[in-house]
């Protein structure tokens, strides 16, 4: 059984106990435990069911590479699926549940899949669910979703907060093990600013577990002193619990810091996403031990040798009392020795090598451990935990020589450098035949904009495994990185580590080497996605030669662990099946993030009130206090209408319109774009930007203008006021201000760079209030300050002065057809003017009105709206706006495009008014249908509705639309099928429904 | 005559850093050839402040000149003096091609102060805030999360930030969130400034 022992446990605090639950069962652990070590201390070997066959699974690793021990963590708003027990630090009252089991972990119905495994081979989905087609969505997928899959999706809102942090530094070191720390030191000694990212809670890596001597001190003492030294260095920052998640172009490094996962009650954000810019990056990401592929290698109790050593030394947990160690290298002997010294019974070391290992083997033998060379595990037996091991010769097909009872198996298939981060941005790999692993090729690093490498590697991630090599290379790597950014390293001696000679590893991709098909179909490569040796072999037989195709066909390495344990074993198996060398098969692509990061961290602070910027006018809070219903316009919120008490929105809109038409209304028009264009060439510039002539506009006057892009399509409209000889104020649509500003700057900076024009976006400088209706002048005269008579300020004129004691510009422009004044005042006094107008207007029956009333009134007048009548494919000519297109000008943006045959075609749909025959309202976006079918077999269309409203003024539905030959078909009735099954009939009429002569606005 | 009111009317927050909306300031956008004598004279003459170099701020008392782009300066003065300063600039510019326009109401200014001010700001802006590259006298036009913003350091622990008025509430909420309890990064505040 697995239990906590009285000795060891360098990371745990035995003086305090923590309680937690697993599947509702109470358990105890200590501060410093991971959930995995605490589960093992409570003899919880079975931690989950596998993805496809629902096989019982236990903890196999001790770090980020763990494929099996994924749990549902927390409840309600803090619930999160697929959390790795090996990287989850234990905290008091932690609640974890195992995944992919039904009805319970101990008894799982889905385990029947394991019996059917011969019917569920690689590519099963592709082979089985192809036909009949309709079955996929309605039959197959729902069943598969029920039976496969790991964690559940959270149902509640996440209760935690997240944030970003941007850092710019000289050198980032990913990995805080001995190599990373030494690299950081030598880089910092060379004068560089260094940031070290360590994914675990502890700096120092696995050297304290593996032991050794550096500069005459035990390795762990050396590391403690080194940490002390680094902490005192002003140019070194070390962040633990902060994973280097990805390396991208231009020295961009993503860090994922877990702030409160280990202490959920603490204040502050849960995760912090570091967005780092570095000149050089050093990956000191260590190495991952590989499992051995033997039958039953997925049973709970079969564990990586290094993990078993970690649990013992770091957490004081002895995973088994009677242990068998299977290995192809010397490192696993360290586990056997540690277990033996801690009191476990190490029954056998099965060393696949005929000649065995070096001095470590000698030491194990001296401790009295039986070592069988040239031996292998034929099969592990047991149900929910290891019971027996059948031992055979490595060079056999699996015929058992003996069977030994045991309760745990430690395995080691050698080590693979963690090359992920090196590879993220294009670093290339070398196959190292001796060590049987891929390691970074220093000659082909990820390159920056200057063509030079900006990532280098240190320590085990570099491919060095002997402590002496690691410390020497890491020291040098730091110096080199500093040199690469122009530092001049001073001479500092590299540390020297005592060597432990290790014998050469024997590549073992299958155990035993000639395992029969029965064993191969029980030898797991990818634990998380349930891919076995036999699956990869089948894929090879079926013609999948590319490792990328095999990966997708078998799902090897496609689970949440991204194949950290399975990749090399899988591609070696593929290479063997294809009879090609491993390097010619190559690896799959390594993509960030290194391990999954939370969606919350990616979103950062952007949630709730700061999910998105909300633009508020200076009068926003008044609208809010008066129960405005909002309409989003860009990032602005504009009042749609101001419903009273129980008033329906439609009724409120009708009331507001009638009030404007009969008395006076106020509109907050502050969101209108206001661009100031100034310079000797300003007139010439605006003549190019607008379709009509602007240079002839007199100071003090306004002119409506249309703006097209170079393809001729209408992009914006608005009123231009000439401020003085050289200055114009261009009003744009509310949503268009920023784009049109950018549009102007683009033309000025790229095409007409020699024109003397400056543009400034003064949109937010002014609050703008439209005072509209027959009583508008009376209201303004009551406030006083300016002569606003028709003689002094006629339609399409503007004047500067004071209204209610506030400096103002008054524009006599009308978008409603009524007498209308738009008053611009400094934004800081906008609310003051608004409230003054509301107060003074009481006797005239003033009411605020919203955007819907604005829309209806402009439609009653036949005025177009950018975004309604236009959609990026409409030219001014389509809208009957030929009067606003200058014939005199030699050129304007869009002119040439509008002369192209398709643009000039008489068959373009043109703007008309539409009046339903029965007074109802046409559905939005409805199409007018014609006779027959088109080439696609669809009903022929001959027009569409662009704006449609109920007009309270006319007491009927009115609409505008684009219709084929529309203006020539006045009086004709068109059919508009609605999505409600009804067919609407509407007559083609003039688009101006109200006050065609324009007498009401011109008073 | 009503009193002008800034977007958040001096709202404040005390967290890892002190966040304050610091009321209305006179702000004049001056676009022109920054090497032209008339433009330089207009800027320096009206403000009494020396001409800043690229990415720099020069200040004297309440007045400041901020370099905003190769052809744009921001002239900062007292809010009530802005018309006077603008008139002075127009006179000084004469016929020179330039655009000087009052933007005082278009913007909101914040102060973020305290030993963690850099850490708070570095949660929101991608600009390099390392003391070695960004110190008092430097200005950056960058962004705070999703909005454009410009900021400079008055002293090593005091940021001045300007953003558009319409997003003042968003900017304030952002800064308060970044300065929230328990979220200290300790990246800049823990590390002493490197001796150069």
UniProtKB/TrEMBL annotation, chain A:
Keywords: Oxidoreductase. Residues 521-604 form the SoxA A3 domain. Residues 170-421 form the FAD/NAD(P)-binding domain. GO terms for biological process: tetrahydrofolate metabolic process. SUPFAM superfamilies: Aminomethyltransferase beta-barrel domain (SSF101790), FAD/NAD(P)-binding domain (SSF51905), Folate-binding domain (SSF103025). Residues 619-889 form the GCVT N-terminal domain. GO terms for molecular function: sarcosine oxidase activity. InterPro entries: 2Fe-2S-bd_N, FAD/NAD-bd_sf, FAD/NAD-binding_dom, GcvT/YgfZ/DmdA, GcvT/YgfZ_C, GcvT_C, GCVT_N, Sarcosine_oxidase_asu. It holds the Pfam family GCV_T_C. NCBIfam families: soxA. Belongs to the GcvT family. PANTHER family: AMINOMETHYLTRANSFERASE, AMINOMETHYLTRANSFERASE, MITOCHONDRIAL. This is Sarcosine oxidase subunit alpha family protein. It comes from Pontibaca salina.
Automatic annotation (TrEMBL), chain B:
Gene3D superfamilies: Heterotetrameric sarcosine oxidase, Probable tRNA modification gtpase trme, domain 1. Pfam families: SoxG. It comes from the Bacteria. InterPro entries: SoxG, TrmE/GcvT-like. SUPFAM superfamilies: Folate-binding domain. This is Sarcosine oxidase subunit gamma. It comes from Pontibaca salina.
């Amino acid at each position: 059984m697995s239990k906590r022992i009285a000795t060891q446990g360098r990371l745990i605090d035995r003086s305090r106990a923590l309680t937690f639950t697993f599947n509702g069962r109470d358990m105890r652990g200590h501060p410093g435990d991971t959930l995995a070590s605490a589960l093992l201390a409570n003899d919880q070997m079975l931690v989950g069911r596998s993805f496809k066959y629902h096989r019982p699974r236990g903890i196999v690793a001790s770090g980020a590479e763990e494929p099996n021990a994924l749990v549902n963590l927390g409840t309600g708003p803090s619930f999160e699926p697929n959390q790795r027990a090996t990287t989850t630090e234990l905290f008091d009252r932690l609640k974890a549940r195992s995944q992919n089991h039904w009805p319970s972990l101990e008894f799982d119905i889905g385990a029947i899949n394991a019996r059917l495994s011969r019917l569920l081979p690689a590519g099963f989905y592709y082979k089985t669910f192809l036909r009949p087609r309709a079955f996929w969505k309605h039959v197959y997928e729902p069943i598969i979703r029920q039976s496969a899959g790991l964690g559940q999706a959270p149902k509640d809102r996440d209760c935690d907060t997240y944030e970003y942090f941007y850092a710019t530094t000289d050198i980032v070191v990913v990995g805080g093990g001995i190599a990373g720390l030494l690299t950081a030191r030598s880089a910092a000694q060379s004068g560089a600013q260094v940031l070290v990212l360590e994914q675990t809670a502890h700096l120092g890596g696995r050297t304290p577990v593996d032991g050794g001597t550096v500069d005459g001190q035990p390795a762990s003492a050396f590391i403690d002193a080194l940490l002390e030294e680094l902490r005192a260095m002003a140019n070194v920052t070390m962040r633990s619990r902060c994973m280097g998640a990805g390396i991208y172009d231009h020295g961009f490094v993503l860090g994922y810091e877990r702030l409160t996962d280990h202490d959920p009650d603490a204040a502050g954000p849960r995760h912090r996403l570091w967005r780092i810019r570095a000149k050089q990056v050093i990956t000191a990401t260590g190495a991952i031990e590989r499992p051995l592929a033997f039958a039953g290698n997925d049973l709970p109790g079969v564990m990586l040798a290094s993990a078993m050593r970690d649990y013992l030394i770091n957490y004081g947990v002895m995973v088994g009392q009677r242990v068998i160690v299977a290995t192809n290298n010397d490192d696993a002997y360290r586990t056997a020795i540690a277990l033996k010294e801690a009191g476990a019974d190490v029954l056998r070391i099965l060393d696949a090598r005929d000649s065995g290992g070096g001095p470590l083997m000698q030491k194990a033998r001296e401790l009295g451990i039986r070592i069988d060379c040239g031996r292998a595990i034929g099969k592990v037996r047991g149900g929910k935990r290891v019971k027996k091991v059948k031992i055979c010769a490595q060079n056999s097909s699996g015929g058992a020589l003996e069977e030994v009872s045991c309760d745990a198996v430690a395995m080691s298939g050698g080590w693979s450098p963690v090359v992920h981060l090196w590879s993220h941005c294009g670093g290339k790999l070398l196959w190292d035949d001796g060590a049987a692993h891929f390691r970074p090729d220093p000659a082909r690093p990820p390159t920056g904009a200057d063509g030079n490498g900006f990532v280098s590697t240190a320590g085990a991630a570099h491919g060095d495994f002997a402590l002496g090599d690691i410390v020497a290379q890491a020291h040098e790597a730091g110096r080199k990185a500093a040199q690469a950014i122009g530092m001049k390293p001073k001479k500092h001696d590299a540390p020297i580590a005592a060597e432990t000679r290790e014998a050469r590893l024997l590549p073992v991709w299958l155990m035993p080497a000639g395992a029969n098909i029965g064993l191969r179909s029980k030898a797991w490569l990818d634990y998380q996605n349930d891919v076995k040796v036999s699956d990869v072999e089948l894929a090879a037989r079926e013609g999948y030669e590319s490792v990328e195709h095999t990966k997708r066909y078998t799902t090897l390495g496609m689970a949440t662990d991204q194949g950290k344990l399975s990749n090399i074993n899988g591609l070696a198996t593929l290479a063997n099946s294809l009879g090609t060398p491993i390097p010619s098969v190559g690896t799959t692509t390594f993509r960030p993030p290194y391990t999954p990061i939370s969606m919350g961290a990616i979103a950062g602070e952007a949630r709730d009130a700061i999910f998105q910027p909300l633009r508020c006018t200076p009068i926003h809070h008044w609208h809010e206090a008066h129960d405005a219903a909002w309409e989003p316009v860009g990032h602005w919120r504009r009042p749609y209408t101001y419903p009273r008490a129980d008033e329906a929105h439609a009724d409120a809109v009708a009331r507001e319109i009638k009030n404007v038409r009969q008395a006076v209304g106020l509109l907050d028009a502050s969101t209108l774009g206001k661009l100031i264009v100034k310079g000797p060439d300003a007139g010439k510039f605006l003549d190019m930007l607008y379709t009509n002539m602007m240079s002839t506009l007199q100071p003090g006057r306004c002119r409506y203008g249309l703006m097209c892009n170079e393809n001729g399509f209408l992009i914006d409209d608005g009123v231009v006021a000439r401020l003085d000889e050289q200055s114009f104020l261009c009003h744009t649509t509310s949503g268009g201000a920023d784009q049109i500003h950018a549009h102007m700057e683009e033309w000025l900076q790229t095409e007409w760079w020699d024109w003397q024009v400056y543009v400034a976006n003064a949109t937010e400088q002014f609050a703008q209030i439209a005072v509209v209706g027959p009583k508008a002048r009376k209201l303004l005269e009551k406030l006083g300050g300016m002569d606003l008579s028709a003689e002094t300020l006629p339609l399409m004129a503007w004047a500067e002065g004071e209204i209610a004691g506030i400096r103002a510009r008054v524009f006599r422009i009308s978008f409603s057809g009524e007498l209308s004044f738009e008053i611009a005042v400094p934004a800081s006094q906008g609310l003051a003017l608004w409230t003054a107008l509301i107060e003074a207007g009481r006797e005239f029956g003033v009411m605020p009105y919203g955007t819907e009333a604005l829309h209806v009134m402009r439609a009653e007048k036949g005025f177009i709206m950018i975004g309604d009548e236009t959609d990026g494919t409409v030219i001014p000519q389509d809208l009957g706006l030929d009067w606003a297109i200058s014939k005199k000008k030699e050129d304007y943006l869009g002119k040439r495009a509008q002369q192209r045959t398709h643009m000039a075609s008489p068959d373009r749909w043109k703007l008309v008014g539409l009046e339903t025959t029965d007074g109802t309202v046409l559905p939005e976006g409805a199409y007018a249908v014609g006779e027959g079918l088109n080439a696609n077999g669809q009903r022929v269309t001959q027009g569409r509705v662009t704006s449609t409203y109920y007009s309270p003024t006319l007491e009927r539905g009115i609409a505008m639309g684009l219709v084929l030959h529309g203006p020539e078909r006045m009086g004709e009735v068109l059919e508009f099928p609605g999505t409600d099954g009804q067919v609407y009939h509407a007559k083609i009429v003039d688009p101006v429904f109200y006050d065609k002569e324009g007498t009401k606005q011109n008073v | 005559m009503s009193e002008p009111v800034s977007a958040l009317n001096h709202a404040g927050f005390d967290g890892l850093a002190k966040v304050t909306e610091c009321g209305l300031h006179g702000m004049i956008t001056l676009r022109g050839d920054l090497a032209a004598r008339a433009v330089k004279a207009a800027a320096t003459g009206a403000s009494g402040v020396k001409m800043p170099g690229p990415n720099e701020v020069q200040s004297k008392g309440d007045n400041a000149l901020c370099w905003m782009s190769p052809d744009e300066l921001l002239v900062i003065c007292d809010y009530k003096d802005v018309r006077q300063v603008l008139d002075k600039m127009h006179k000084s510019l004469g016929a020179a091609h330039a655009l000087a326009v009052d933007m005082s109401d278009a913007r909101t200014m914040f102060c973020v102060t305290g030993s963690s001010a850099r850490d708070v700001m570095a949660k929101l802006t991608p600009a390099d805030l390392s003391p070695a590259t960004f110190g008092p006298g430097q200005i950056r036009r960058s962004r705070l999360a999703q909005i454009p913003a410009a900021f400079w350091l008055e002293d090593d622990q005091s940021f001045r930030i300007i953003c558009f008025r319409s997003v003042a509430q968003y900017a304030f909420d952002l800064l308060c969130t970044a300065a929230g309890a328990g979220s200290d990064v300790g990246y800049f505040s823990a590390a002493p400034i490197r001796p150069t």
